[in-house]
Every structure is written in structure tokens, then in C-alpha cells.
Design a protein that fits this description.
- The protein is mainly α.
- It is flat and about 95 Å long.
- Helix 8 packs across helix 9 and helix 8 crosses helix 10.
């Protein structure tokens, strides 16, 4: 390396273990550097690998000072001989792989990052199946999946489809497959640390933080950036500088020079004292990047939220009051205050209720109108009060069936009609008190942290009451009882299943209306245990009881019998054994 640096002016050799590379300005300089490397290998008893040696051209433009008479000089190096290694001519490629990242000018290097994102998506899917709490899964994604996926994003941009695939895999791994319809931007960048688990945010954060660290500490990188600024004026059109400018544009920051940026006043603490032109920052004079890193994370969150295209999250693009919105989640995880009283009501959520609150914030609760649009319900009318169609606003604020819950949390007198949709529907308080224009203007006056938590607690309790009445199975861990019928699925004794249930008979039901109604009436006639400790019935015992009670035989396919063989499989039984 030192020999090439001394003999070839402008050459930049680097070595990583047994791999070496050199960057030169002209082809003759590269030929000279290769000859010196071969000479060194001969003196030390080494042999270069001609088959693996490649060379490429990374810059297609010349600086302005190399122009003559307003016209660029023709490159004489094009007609010169290609570098030769061990007597063989080195292969010229359109792109090459350097330290795991693809470098090139024709887009072929995109294959390297796309394959890495595909591998990271597979790891994310496997990690999502691990029987671990969400906090530990977040650590796995932040330490294993994201670093592997975004390696090299400083010099090449990932394709949107691969990034979307990775985002979906991480979101499903944290929330579960059954909880679809969640807004990934909220689930990953508001409830959690977006720069660690949200791929779009992590890509931009890695890119801007790498640039700021290099401009602060590396004199060599400053020289490269200054040279690039002469070739590619701000904003640039290609290469790593173009990617950096795209990131800064998304953050609404501006690169005013090779190592200086301008940050808007509303992104800093100088909103009221600033002159409106923003804060100029020279990266060379900074002691550390902690403050800029915090501002970059906040700017990237705002960028992520501004791109949300959901009516129920209207107003979130203005920013979020994280202190008020996330307090209930942080208290449950041991990061906030122990308990806060509001009158006679204590808002403190269990682990399951915190999961429900994350579900509400991500706009994943399905009212009757959405279910009807998806053809999952025959009508959009509220099935609890029956007065009007059930949308989110009716469910949270107008349905008379939940007045007692609203009274308990003292939210009946709130002027929710003036709030933005993100607060009145999803319980997310915006950072500003006013926003929007014209008919979409909104106001959040007098919304303290305690009131926001009361609204969130009210939404959680209404959701739980709806689940209880709809008899949705509660997600629970395996308690070792095998085929025992879950106690949470048991209907109440006072319930009577009417013949109208046949209207909801599944489309793929192939055993007739009579058997379906018999099953429904038998289920309503059962008497269920009052506690889990008394519950010890298995599925096969329930099947025997049904056949004895109704006098009907269950279809053979329900018991897993083979079509070709008449011998029943394990878990089934024959008529003689049942009679005994």
C-alpha cells in the first residue's frame, strides 16, 4: 500500500485481509499500480489471483477544470491497453462488489442489495415465529435483521418492493399474522424506535448519520466530498451524493456545502427565536453528533408520518405529542411513572390491554362499516344499538351501548368533534393545537396528558367489551392441556342461539343446514364451568356428547378418516365403542 501511494500520485490503495483494491484517476495509473503490486507479490512469494481480479469505471464525468475551450477533452485512456495481472488481461465489469456492497454505474449493483434484503426478509419471518415477547423480538430485528438488510445503503438505494417486503415481514413478526390492516408506519415508527426496526427510516438514518460522522472526523472524506461537489452541483443527480440529497430532502434539511447543512427552525428549539432561515451547522466544528442524531430521528419520523395515506390518521403529519400518547405503553413496560390517578379512575393497562392499545393506534380496529365493505357482515348497521351505521366515530363516541364506559373514564363532555381523526379515532395526540385548512381544519384545546390517557383507556375497554360479546378467542399461550377446550371460548349460560345463525353459515360448510343448526343448538344447551380450574373436557368428549344428545353422526371427514381406508385414524372412534 505504501509503495503504491509513493510511486503513483493520486492513487488510493486499500487492503482488507487478503483482498486489495486501488482507486486511480486514469487507466495508466491503474496499470502502474497493478505492476507494483505484482512486483511486491513476486518479492514476498505471493501470487495474485487473475481470475478474481476485476476493474471498472466509477466516474463518467470530468471536473470543470479539465475542460478546454468549453469542450471536454476526449479520453485517451480508452484506447490504452487494459491492466494485465499474471500475464492475463483483467476483466472489465459494469459493477463490482466491495466489502459486501455493490459499486457501479449501470444499476447492476442493485442485485447485491436486493438479494441481501430477500435474505433479511426470510430471517425476519423465522424470528417472528419464535415464542418470545415483543421486546426481545425487537432486539432481534434491531441487531440481526436491520443491519444485514441496510448494509451498503450509503452508496446504493434499495428497491421499494424489497423494502416493502421486509417491512411487512417485521410488522407481521411483531404484531402477528391474525392482526392485519395495521399501519406499519405507526406500528414501527411511533410505538417503537423506528431507526432500529422500521426499514425505510433505518435506511435514511444510516445514510445521513454516516455522512455526518465522516465529515466530522475524516479529512480524507472531506476532500472526496469537496471534489464530488465540484462534479455534482447541489442537488446532485447520481451516486452516493444523490442518495444523501434525497434523504436530506425527505427530512426537509438542506445541504449548503460539502460539510454544512441548514436545519429548519421548527426542527430545533429555536422555533420562536429563529429568524426563519433555519440553523446553519458546520459538521467540522461539532464535538459529538448526539443532538443532531436526535433531530434526524424526529425529522425522519415526520417524513414517515407525512406519507401515511389513511383518513383515520389525518393530522399526524404535523407531529405527535409522544409524551402524552405513549405514556400508558411506557408505564406498563416500566419506563414511566408508576400510576396516575384522575379522580376515581386509575388508567393503568395490563400486557394484553397494551397490545389492544397498539392495535387501536395502528388503525386496525374493524367497525361494522369496514366489515360490510369487505363482505364479512351482511349489514353496516351497529349490532349493539341498531340506530345507525357503525363507523369509528359511532363506536367510540356515539353508540349508547358504551355510555357507561365513557362515564367511567369521564370523557363524555369532551369536544371530540373538533379533534383531528388521529386523536378522535386512534387516540394519537398531535403535537400542535391547531392544524389543517378550510373544511379539514381541526383544534386540540385543553387536551392534557391525563385526558389523552383517559380517552385511550376508554377505547381499550370498548374494544375488550366488543370482543367479549362477539366471542372472539383470546390469544393465549399453550398451558399444556393439549386438546382441552379453551375456557375463554365457552358461551354464557344465558345465551340462546336462534335459527338466524344459519344466515351466517360459512360458505365452505358442506354438511347441510340441519347439522349446522344441530351443532348450534347443542352448543347453546351446554352448561359451562365457572372457572378454568373446573374445566377439563376434551374435544372428543364434546363430540361424543353431541352425537348422544342430537342423535346425529358427525361426518367421517370431521374425524380425519381416510377416503381409501375404512380404518379410523387416531382420535376417532366407532359406533360400538361409543355405545359402550
Amino acid at each position: 500500500m505504501y509503495l503504491v501511494e509513493e510511486e503513483v500520485p493520486g492513487a488510493e490503495p486499500q487492503a482488507f485481509a487478503d483482498d486489495t483494491e486501488v482507486v486511480t484517476r486514469t487507466k495508466p495509473d491503474m496499470t502502474r499500480a497493478v505492476a507494483l503490486t505484482e512486483e511486491f507479490c513476486g518479492d514476498t512469494g505471493q501470487r495474485p489471483n487473475a481470475r478474481k481480479s476485476k476493474w471498472t469505471v466509477l466516474r463518467a464525468k470530468r471536473p470543470p477544470d479539465e475542460e478546454e475551450g468549453g469542450r471536454k477533452r476526449k479520453r485517451k485512456s480508452e484506447a490504452e491497453a487494459n491492466p494485465r495481472i499474471a500475464g492475463q488481461e483483467a476483466e472489465k465489469v459494469a459493477w463490482l462488489k466491495c466489502l459486501g456492497a455493490g459499486l457501479g454505474t449501470d444499476g447492476g449493483a442493485q442485485k447485491v442489495l436486493s438479494s441481501r434484503l430477500d435474505e433479511a426478509s426470510k430471517i425476519a419471518k423465522r424470528a417472528g415465529k419464535l415464542p418470545l415477547p415483543q421486546e426481545k423480538k425487537e432486539r432481534i430485528y434491531a441487531s440481526v435483521v436491520i443491519p444485514k438488510a441496510i448494509y451498503g445503503v450509503e452508496v446504493q438505494g434499495p428497491e421499494k418492493k424489497w423494502l416493502a417486503q421486509l417491512t411487512a415481514a417485521i410488522e407481521r413478526g411483531l404484531a402477528g399474522r391474525d392482526r392485519r390492516g395495521r399501519c406499519a408506519a405507526i406500528s414501527l415508527s411511533l410505538v417503537r424506535k423506528g431507526h432500529l426496526v422500521d426499514p425505510p427510516v433505518a435506511v435514511h438514518y444510516r445514510r445521513v448519520m454516516t455522512w455526518m460522522a465522516l465529515m466530522k472526523d475524516s479529512e480524507r472524506c472531506r476532500a472526496h466530498m469537496q471534489a464530488a461537489a465540484r462534479v455534482f452541483p447541489c442537488p446532485s443527480t447520481s451516486g452516493p451524493v444523490h442518495l444523501l440529497d434525497g434523504t436530506l430532502e425527505a427530512m426537509k434539511w438542506q445541504r449548503t456545502g460539502p460539510w454544512s447543512i441548514r436545519i429548519p427552525d421548527d426542527h430545533t428549539d429555536e422555533t420562536e427565536t429563529g429568524d426563519g432561515r433555519g440553523k446553519e451547522v458546520d459538521l467540522r466544528t461539532l464535538d459529538d453528533l448526539k443532538e443532531l442524531g436526535h433531530l434526524a430521528r424526529e425529522a425522519l419520523r415526520l417524513w414517515r408520518w407525512r406519507n401515511i395515506d389513511r383518513k383515520n390518521l389525518e393530522g399526524i403529519g404535523e407531529g405527535v405529542d409522544r409524551n402524552a400518547t405513549l405514556r400508558l405503553l411506557e408505564v406498563g413496560r416500566g419506563k414511566g411513572e408508576a400510576r396516575e390517578e384522575r379522580g376515581a379512575t386509575a388508567v393503568n393497562l395490563s400486557a394484553y390491554e397494551r397490545g389492544v392499545l397498539r392495535h387501536i393506534m395502528a388503525d386496525a380496529v374493524l367497525p361494522q362499516t369496514r366489515l360490510h365493505q369487505r363482505k364479512m357482515q351482511p349489514s353496516a348497521t351497529c349490532k349493539y344499538c341498531g340506530k345507525e351505521d357503525e363507523d369509528h366515530l359511532h363506536m367510540w363516541w356515539r353508540c349508547g351501548e358504551w355510555d357507561a364506559i365513557r362515564t367511567t373514564y369521564a370523557v363524555t363532555a369532551l369536544e371530540w368533534q373538533e379533534w383531528p381523526k388521529c386523536m378522535s379515532v386512534c387516540g394519537i395526540k398531535p403535537k400542535r393545537e391547531r392544524g389543517g385548512e378550510g373544511a379539514g381544519a381541526w383544534v386540540c384545546r385543553g387536551l392534557t396528558r391525563q385526558l389523552v390517557n383517559s380517552v385511550q383507556g376508554m377505547m381499550v375497554q370498548i374494544t375488550l367489551e366488543r370482543q367479549r360479546r362477539d366471542k372472539k378467542p383470546v390469544q393465549r399461550e399453550n398451558d399444556g392441556r393439549g386438546l382441552a377446550y379453551p375456557w375463554e371460548w365457552a358461551p354464557q349460560e344465558t345465551e340462546v342461539i336462534q335459527n338466524s345463525l344459519a344466515d351466517y353459515m360459512p360458505r365452505n360448510w358442506k354438511h347441510g343446514r340441519v347439522l349446522y343448526l344441530a351443532l348450534a343448538h347443542w352448543l347453546a344447551s351446554l352448561r359451562w364451568a365457572k372457572s378454568e380450574e373446573e374445566m377439563a373436557v376434551t374435544f372428543i368428549e364434546l363430540a361424543v356428547d353431541f352425537e348422544v344428545e342430537s342423535g346425529m353422526d358427525l361426518p367421517r371427514r370431521c374425524w380425519g378418516c381416510s377416503r381409501r381406508s375404512k380404518e379410523p385414524k387416531m382420535g376417532s372412534f366407532c359406533r360400538q365403542e361409543r355405545n359402550q
